[in-house]
Amino acid sequence: MKNQIKKYVLLSYLALIVSMYITGCSTEEVSEVPPNIIFIFTDDHASHAVSAYGSDIIQTPNIDRLANEGVIFHNAFVTNSICAPSRGVLLTGKHSHINGQLTNAQEFDGTQMTYPQVLQQSGYQTAMIGKWHLQSDPTGYDHWEILPGQGHYYNPEFITPEGTNHYEGYVTDIITDKVIDWIENNRESEQPFMVNYHHKAPHRNWKPAPEHLGMFDDIDIPEPETLFANWSGELDDGQDHEDFPPGEWAGRTSAVQTQEMTLMNHFDEAWDLKFPPDSVQDARHANLWSNRYERLTDEQREQWDAYYDAYYEEYKDKNLQGRDRLSWIYQRYIKDYLSTIVSVDNNLGRLLDYLEETGLAENTIVVYTSDQGFYLGDHGWYDKRWMYEESLHIPLVMRWPAGIEAGTQSRELVQNLDFAPTLIDLAGEPVPEDVQGRSLVPLMKDQTPDDWRSSIYYHYYEYPGEHAVPRHYGVRTDRYKLIHYYQVGEWELFDLEADRGEMQSVYDDPDYEEVKQELKEELDRLREKYNVPEEDPI
What we know:
Layout lengths: L1 H22 L3 H4 L5 E7 L18 H9 L1 E3 L2 E2 L5 H10 L3 H4 L15 H8 L2 E7 L11 E5 L9 E4 L2 E4 L4 H15 L7 E6 L55 H5 L24 H11 L4 H21 L3 H37 L5 E7 L18 H4 L3 E4 L8 E3 L3 E2 L3 H8 L14 H4 L11 E5 L11 E5 L3 E6 L4 E6 L17 H17 L9
């Protein structure tokens, strides 16, 4: 009965919206009506690859459009920088140790409370389209079509409740087609809707759309300041430095020395650089690459070979070593990565145009974010996982013409922990008491609560695992970051104002002793607040 009543109320709201558009009511009046929600989730999109955040390596005009016409959050972070755990936090508004999704290995428990379930029960029509990556079937959705596992860039399959369907084309385009088609043709127009529009891009191994192959080839992408910062040995001694660290990593823990995510030593030539599989020694990645290469149509393969074979021949001819080799790898990596983002941004533009053309834009909130950040050569790395800024920080922009003033900016500390309570709040529902995040609605309206958080908690669990990043947890404030690598018994403390690149820990610096003790106390407070067990639950 409760749900029936809510549906009738929502039908009345719809009539009210129509009336408001006809009579020209104010934005403030329209914003009282529950909005439609489109939640766009990319995979591994670093905030420093968004021009709204000041990127000097790419222009993202449609993401910038959301930021300019709505709100941009300058200090948005994750709780656990790895794909499936981030998705678990998104759905539940609870830390990994509470929702059970600590690593990529677990199967998500869809019987627990999730925000799609709350919205569905409140009268929203809900859909999940794109990358799911949680092993279990989605719950709380009237409609779902998801990629299996990581999915494929070219000619992907989609799993549905009725079975698996195969499509020819590029995955970013196809996901957008499906989202627009569902909004246009497969929902009840009398109800507000919420759609999770989840991209595969720009996840490894970064296959650009055919029309974007080579789009950055005429320029050299600026190298990050820290690309060579952890180089083992002198850079300008006239010798070739074939090996990358482990070596001398001044001011860093042993955890940094034992990781396996350098562009120099851990980037795979077949899988990441797209060299012919028979040219490399790594049989596992060569076979994996061959299987995905075989997905291409004859026309796609012809374009692919013409482009990447030329770079393989260039690499062989140059016989690159040391610093020159790393610079060359960086250029190949970053250009493929950015090309996949261009497709995401273009397709966002398609969606925004559709919303404008259909009159849905005014009372539809469009959220753009990512499951975590990513290393774009920073520290000489790719991938994520660490509590360092590049993987901790995420882009977060929202547009809602009826409820958010254009040009709004927030510098408060927010996390993906806050997404579920925000969307529940927007739907007009009470946020469940056990949700650990907070609604961002006040910040969206530039009304920061006096008791807004002054620190965030982070905890990474996936070790042993790919890239060999040890488990760690920590606290970040507006200026400082304290990280505890508890498996190896080491700590790092960074002054983010003095050391933007986080290259020199000041944990043992006596000048920071008071700061260190205050941060340890705050870390203890957060662990108690979030009910973090002393022993890892895995």
